[in-house]
DNA sequence: CACGAGCGTGTAGAG
DNA sequence: CACGCTCGTG
């Protein structure tokens, strides 16, 4: 894309090099473009890269900025490599390594930050260390027993520490840093206002009705057990239509000394624990950098930048705002953001940082200048530059998106803001060809896929490309979801129907097939839960449930698997084991390599602590840990991602999906028992007491009242919806299921109820480098392996063969050899296999799983098996099954097996000729097989099932 | 008809 | 824990 000419507002920003500027940069208004141009302009005005701090939200954004700056100025990439263009976290990291050795001393902690201090990025590992810390903490502090008993989830405590750190509340060894203690107490004045608001009478048809507060306190005692000092529901709700004002103070004022002490001790001792063990988490990085900059005046003054720019300011936390002020040596400060796109509240982003920029600026300057002048520059003059010209979407999309910010998120919520209060964006294009539509369906996944099939190739959904409209493709479409789960489900359904999908964003790495198999093998190796491990491994190999059970009961594991286990047992490191497992199963993808890297990292590369590793994986599963994985298969596929992941991106056609009750907004909230909330401060929802003789957890009635006043804020949900909508360039669709969310129903749309009909689109048009096979819905179909179809009488009295063991060895060799491993043939048969493989010129796929759905009457049955070798060339695909038989007696039975593979492979490679064949290793001959039709296979399954019904009972289902 | 009480329900996001 | 539904009452 050629760089456009900046518009008037953008030019104002680019050229405004002095003074404080708040850039209110709406979605798609060329923010990154303007920032990079401004940066380049600063350089051309004589600033050195070292004079200019540019803070970005992610490391990727930092790299992109650098690249774009390089394109605009005389500096090279290498000259800018060390320029301060980075995230807050990396900046703090660098600062601490260089100057922060003594930062802990300002909190009264003796240990130093050293060059070997590591940044601990993995949260599961940190949670692990925190648990270790906590158990020794409890032993050392019997006085905290009562508060500790209240905790249900120890990691929630770590979460609380992170929150306090992000809000600038730090402990010192014997108290709180600066005015941290005040924040913990909360602000009664501010609370009183919330109380009054919640307690104001409502207007009914015949005069005043009870206040929201009074309503929500009905059922005050339901499912609860309070201490005897709690008022009864009748006492509390005595007044009408409002409850008595005295309850504000009664509820707010509470003895929280034990709680505060507990949190203080856990907090400060955990910091000590971390520093002593040479690690810091993201939160402590900022905490120590802040403290160092605060206390070391000489350092602060020497670092102070002449120019500071902060991007995505709406997603900064309180501590980051303050860090910004400490790092700015002059009032040449420029923050860029859009409150409407603030969606990281759960990472403690404070939308007020940008919404109330000037108020916070004044408050923080005053606070930081308490006993020493740290922020010397004047802050009186703040210039706001609004960027309103949108280069992404059509006007109709932009007009609709404003409604997202005013839609009630629940049936009863009233939003005190109207569309007119929202600054609208103005489309740069005159063209408005947008289709804006909404649909609901009881089967939402299918309805979405159905709609996608309608869109692709349909000029009603033509998209703009350099000013011309063209026919839409799959890769023009993005499905954006609030929750990751829905995206993953959709991906599964799409695979099933052959709609090409690329899922982008965080992946729950430990829920992938790769990790599940690895975990299974680790369990087998460590002999912990080994039955579970074997079950997974055997099922994966295509054994039916009944077969698996038999093997498990009799411990008659297939020889090849036994041998493989022994091989793994000899491995030195977890990384080697993982690599070996993935190699065996043919996983050469991004998931596998990320897992190897991660596990290597976790185990410090050397130790082979299987039990520890199993627990790490289990806990990661439990914590639903996600990892960013670059797994874009390329090609023409739709994008599925969460709204969070889509931020900053754009797509020609956007489908905002799963706008359903309990999903968007998501239901519930944390059940953390110790919380820190503005303005009530630190609170516990449960109290431990022996009021009735026995120690017992009681509900805290005060918290119950306080939380009723706080209410729930759905602004962030609306902003998420806004972000989703403003990703769309040409067309914007909304989808919901059987129970749409109020967010969906209250948008000015006319939803259409649809009944998806995907029969016709069930054609596989995917052809990807990685072999992917569709696995049908798990609940209906029954599973079989191709061997079940075969008449095994032909195998019974064969003394010509050399037994299953020999066969397995040859297969094992063939697999390893085709994979390029350095293995030597140990028999004539293996030598013949080697020669055969050497002749093949195309791409080889080894041990591929094949799943074939077959309709038998009403039922869907899945036949699964493992293809020994696929040989793929430009125009054909050869399916090879090795046989060590000396005769061809069993060929009619093998034909059934190969037919199953044939139909699976045919779907994967629709444009190529498929050649199923047997390789007889005894003679080195290849025999082509004429595949059976689907109908014949279906009949075979039917016959096989009828003959088995008597002794098998219900057919087992597999997943 | 209007309001309030009682009850069943389902439970994220990401560096 | 807070939604929305249903049922009971004035």
UniProtKB/TrEMBL annotation:
InterPro entries in UniProt: DExx_box_DNA_helicase_dom_sf, DNA_helicase_UvrD-like_C, DNA_helicase_UvrD/REP, P-loop_NTPase, PDDEXK-like_dom_sf, PDDEXK_AddAB-type, Restrct_endonuc-II-like, UvrD-like_ATP-bd
**Positions of the UvrD-like helicase C-terminal domain:** 395-648
Report the catalytic activity: ATP + H2O = ADP + phosphate + H(+); Couples ATP hydrolysis with the unwinding of duplex DNA by translocating in the 3'-5' direction
Identify the species of origin.
Answer: Halorhabdus utahensis (strain DSM 12940 / JCM 11049 / AX-2)
* Pfam families associated with the record: PDDEXK_1, UvrD-helicase, UvrD_C
List the CDD domains: DEXQc_UvrD
The biological process GO terms on file are: recombinational repair
Keyword Transferase applies: no
MF annotations from Gene Ontology: 3'-5' DNA helicase activity; ATP binding; DNA binding; exonuclease activity
Protein name per Swiss-Prot or TrEMBL: DNA 3'-5' helicase
What are the EC numbers? 5.6.2.4
Q: Which residues bind ATP?
A: 25-32
Q: Does the keyword Nucleotide-binding apply?
A: yes
**Entry similarity comment:** Belongs to the helicase family. UvrD subfamily.
Outline the extent of the UvrD-like helicase ATP-binding domain: 4-394
Keywords attached to this entry:
ATP-binding, DNA damage, DNA repair, DNA-binding, Exonuclease, Helicase, Hydrolase, Isomerase, Nuclease, Nucleotide-binding
């Amino acid at each position: 894309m050629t760089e456009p000419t900046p518009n008037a507002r953008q030019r104002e920003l680019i050229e405004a090099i002095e003074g404080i500027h708040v850039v209110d940069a709406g979605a798609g208004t060329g923010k990154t473009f303007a920032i990079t141009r401004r940066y380049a302009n600063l350089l051309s005005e004589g600033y050195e890269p070292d004079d200019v701090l540019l803070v970005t939200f992610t490391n990727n954004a930092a790299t992109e900025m650098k690249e774009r700056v390089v394109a605009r100025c005389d500096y090279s990439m290498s000259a800018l490599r060390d320029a301060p263009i980075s995230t807050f976290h990396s900046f703090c990291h660098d600062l601490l390594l260089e100057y922060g050795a003594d930062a802990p001393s300002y909190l009264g902690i003796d240990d130093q930050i050293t060059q070997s201090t590591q940044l601990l990025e993995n949260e599961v590992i940190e949670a692990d260390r925190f648990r270790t810390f906590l158990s020794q903490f409890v032993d050392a502090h019997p006085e905290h027993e009562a508060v500790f008993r209240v905790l249900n989830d120890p990691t929630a405590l770590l979460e609380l520490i992170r929150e306090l750190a992000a809000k600038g509340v730090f402990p010192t060894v014997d108290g709180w840093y600066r005015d941290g203690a005040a924040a913990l107490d909360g602000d009664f004045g501010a609370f009183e206002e919330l109380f009054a608001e919640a307690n104001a009478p409502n207007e009914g048809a015949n005069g005043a009705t009870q206040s929201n507060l009074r309503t929500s306190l009905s059922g005050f005692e339901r499912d609860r057990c309070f201490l005897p000092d709690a008022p009864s529901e009748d006492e509390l709700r005595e007044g009408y239509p409002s409850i008595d004002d005295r309850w504000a103070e009664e509820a707010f004022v509470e003895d929280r000394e034990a709680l505060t002490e507990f949190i203080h001790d856990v907090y400060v001792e955990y910091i000590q624990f971390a520093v002593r063990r040479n690690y810091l988490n993201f939160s402590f990085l900022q905490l120590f950098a802040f403290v160092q900059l605060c206390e070391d005046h000489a350092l602060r003054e020497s670092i102070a930048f002449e120019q500071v720019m902060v991007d995505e300011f709406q997603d900064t936390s309180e501590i980051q705002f303050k860090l910004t002020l400490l790092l700015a040596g002059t009032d040449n400060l420029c923050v860029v953001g859009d409150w409407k796109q603030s969606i990281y509240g759960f990472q403690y982003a404070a939308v007020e940082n940008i919404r109330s920029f000037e108020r916070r600026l004044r408050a923080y300057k005053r606070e930081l200048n308490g006993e020493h002048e740290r922020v010397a520059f004047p802050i009186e003059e703040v210039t706001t530059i609004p960027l309103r010209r949108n280069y992404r979407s059509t006007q109709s999309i932009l007009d609709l998106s404003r409604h997202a910010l005013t839609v009630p998120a629940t049936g009863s919520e009233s939003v005190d803001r109207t569309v007119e209060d929202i600054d609208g964006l103005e489309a740069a294009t005159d063209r408005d060809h947008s289709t804006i539509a909404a649909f609901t369906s009881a089967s939402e996944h299918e309805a979405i896929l159905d709609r996608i099939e309608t869109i692709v190739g349909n000029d009603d959904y033509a998209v703009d490309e350099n000013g011309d409209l063209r026919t839409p493709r799959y890769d023009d479409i993005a499905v954006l979801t609030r929750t990751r789960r829905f995206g993953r489900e959709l991906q599964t359904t799409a695979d099933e129907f052959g709609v090409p999908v690329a899922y982008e964003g965080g992946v729950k790495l430990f829920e992938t097939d790769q990790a599940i198999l690895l975990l299974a093998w680790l369990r087998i190796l460590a002999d912990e839960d080994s039955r579970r491990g074997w079950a997974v491994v055997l099922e994966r190999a295509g054994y039916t449930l009944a077969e698996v059970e038999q093997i498990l009961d009799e411990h008659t594991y297939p020889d090849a698997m036994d041998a493989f286990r022994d091989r793994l047992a000899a491995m030195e490191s977890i990384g080697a084991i993982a690599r070996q497992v993935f190699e065996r199963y043919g996983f050469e993808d991004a998931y596998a390599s990320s897992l190897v890297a991660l596990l290597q990292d976790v185990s410090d590369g050397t130790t082979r602590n299987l039990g520890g590793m199993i627990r790490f994986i289990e806990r990661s599963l439990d914590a639903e840990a996600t990892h960013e994985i670059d797994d874009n298969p390329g090609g023409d596929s739709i994008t599925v991602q969460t709204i969070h992941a889509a931020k900053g991106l754009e797509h020609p056609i956007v489908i905002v999906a799963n706008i359903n009750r309990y999903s968007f907004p998501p239901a519930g909230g944390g059940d953390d028992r110790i919380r820190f909330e503005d303005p009530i401060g630190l609170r516990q929802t449960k109290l431990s007491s022996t009021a009735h003789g026995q120690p017992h957890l009681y509900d805290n009635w005060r918290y119950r009242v306080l939380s009723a006043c706080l209410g729930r804020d759905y602004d962030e949900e609306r902003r998420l919806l806004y972000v989703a909508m403003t990703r769309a360039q040409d067309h914007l669709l909304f989808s919901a299921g059987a129970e749409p969310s109020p967010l969906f129903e209250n948008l000015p749309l006319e939803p259409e109820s649809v009944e998806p009909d995907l029969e016709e689109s069930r054609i596989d048009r995917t052809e990807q480098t990685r072999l992917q096979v569709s696995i049908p819905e798990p609940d209906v179909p029954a599973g079989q392996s191709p061997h079940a179809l075969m008449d095994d009488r032909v195998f019974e009295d064969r003394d010509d063969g050399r037994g299953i063991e020999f066969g397995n060895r040859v297969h094992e060799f063939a697999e390893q050899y085709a994979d390029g491993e350095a293995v030597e043939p140990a028999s004539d048969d293996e030598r013949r296999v080697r020669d055969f493989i050497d002749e093949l010129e195309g791409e080889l796929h080894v041990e591929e799983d094949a799943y074939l759905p077959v309709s038998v009457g009403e039922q869907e049955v899945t036949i699964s098996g493992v293809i020994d070798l696929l040989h793929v060339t430009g125009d054909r695909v050869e399916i090879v099954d090795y046989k060590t038989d000396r005769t061809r007696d069993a060929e009619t039975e093998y034909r059934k097996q190969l037919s199953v593979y044939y139909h699976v492979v045919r779907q994967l490679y629709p444009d190529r000729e498929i050649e199923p064949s047997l390789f007889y290793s005894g003679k080195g001959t290849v025999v082509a097989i004429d595949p059976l039709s689907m109908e014949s296979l279906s009949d075979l399954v039917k016959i096989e099932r009828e003959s088995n019904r008597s002794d098998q009972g219900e057919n087992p289902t597999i997943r």
